[in-house]
Amino acid sequence: MSRLISLRFKKIHLVLLFGCVFLVWNFITFYTLSSKPRPMNTDKEIQLVNQLQALEKAMSKQAEDNRKILSGLQHLKDTNSTNSNMNLTNSNKEGVLPILMIACDRTSVSRALDKLLEYRPSASKFPIIVSQDCGHAETAEVIHKYVVSHNITHLKQPDLSNINLAWPQKKFVGYYKISRHYKWALDQIFVTMKYMAAIIVEDDLDVSPDFFEYFSATYPILQSDPNLWCVSAWNDNGKEGMVSDEAELLYRTDFFPGLGWMIERKLWLELRNTWPEAFWDDWMRHPAQRKGRECIRPEICRTSTFGRKGVSKGLYFDKHLKYIKLNTVFVPFTKIDLSYLEKNKYDATFTKMVYSAPLLSPEEVRNGAQPTSSVVRVEYTTKDSFKRIAALLGIMDDFKAGVPRAAYRGVVSFMFRGRRVFLTPPSSWSGYDTSWT
Ligand SMILES: *[C@@H]1O[C@H](CO)[C@@H](O)[C@H](O)[C@H]1NC(C)=O
Ligand SMILES: *[C@@H]1O[C@H](CO)[C@@H](O)[C@H](O)[C@H]1NC(C)=O
Ligand SMILES: *[C@@H]1O[C@H](CO)[C@@H](O)[C@H](O)[C@H]1NC(C)=O
């Protein structure tokens, strides 16, 4: 009974609603037709036009935002399904360390390949895979010659589409393309080919005679130490005269150096989910990605760059990169005891060695005070004092996410006029300040 009544009420409700709408519509039509167009006062007109334009802008922004959200969701779905399809059991590629070379439009890729092939001890242990972006035919031809003569693999990044960026970002389009290429290429190596680790180089790097030996020997350390996430061939302060001749000397560093670096598959599966659209190297250096993890780096670089042409290089090449010393002697790393790099041993020994060195001012170091001390320490307490001392003694003065280049626990180690200098924070140091940029 009560249901019937309520149904009836609903019907009446609906009829009333339609009636109202009809009346209002009639009223509006009548009003519109009967009212003569009145000359509008120009201020109001301008105001109206402005409002319309603002509305149009807001609507197109909304449409753009929706498109972004949609593509973000699509991306999430794609990575999600890749992740769930991924077979995380070890492949039969254990012990193989492919070299992934990132290439684009430089035919000088042949120089980089020649050096790798010259020093490569085994083709099966170190397969070379060149991933080429940019679709540059001449470079593709050069790479193809190596496919024929040396059985290297030539991958071509399929997405050569433009990346549309609004004005302030537009000039960075090269960095967006690089990031897109790295993502694709690393997916080929780790997701499609399922390699367990890889060494990543670029098409403008020369390598040292012990490049392969270095990565072979450090690979087991990378695998077993959860505090390590990379091994790099690069020392950011590795200029001629700023490194010792201890070619076998290796370090731990909190700074991700890049420029010839090895990572494991498991790290890529972690990073790929949030891989950035641009500036991937600085993104990796951010605490959200680094998570306190460290890299191994050498005293003397195992790569050096010969490329002046590139997205970022130019000035940076002339100022720094061309002075980098490339190691020339073969160090038999696989036959050397590298257990000093293990975190427990390393941290204790390193801290003791650094903080027991006599403390000098940077001016005293410059003037050669205390000539009998072969190891000295200089202290910085603020960002500005670091930068001042770095300029005085000639090391890199920049920070990424608060970490000075090549630093470990805030300490930068380098040679100055033949002696070891540790530029250090006070021994009470408790962590990096990410506001130092
Ligand atoms: C991702 O996968 C999980 C299960 O594997 C599922 O619950 C979730 O809805 C997926 N997310 C998206 C965005 O597809
Ligand atoms: C995963 O890969 C391993 C070796 O590559 C294979 O033996 C295994 O059957 C695969 N598992 C699944 C669920 O595909
Ligand atoms: C060529 O390289 C591929 C993979 O890198 C390898 O599987 C194959 O055996 C190589 N072929 C020869 C003839 O060496």
How would you explain this protein's 3D organization?
The chain has 437 residues and is of the alpha/beta class. The chain folds into three domains: 2-93; 99-337, Spore Coat Polysaccharide Biosynthesis Protein SpsA, Chain A (Alpha-Beta Complex), CATH 3.90.550; 342-437, Roll (2,3-Dihydroxybiphenyl 1,2-Dioxygenase, domain 1). The protein is built from 14 helices and 15 strands. The strands form four sheets. The protein has an eight-stranded mixed sheet, sandwiched between helices. Strands 11-15-14 form a three-stranded mixed sheet. Strands 5-10 form a two-stranded antiparallel sheet. It is globular and about 100 Å long. The chain starts with a helix and ends in a 13-residue tail after the last strand. 32% of the residues are buried. The model has no long low-confidence stretch (mean pLDDT 90). Bound molecules: 2-acetamido-2-deoxy-beta-D-glucopyranose (3 copies). One 2-acetamido-2-deoxy-beta-D-glucopyranose binds at residues 76-77, 80, 84. GO terms for molecular function: alpha-1,3-mannosylglycoprotein 2-beta-N-acetylglucosaminyltransferase activity; manganese ion binding.
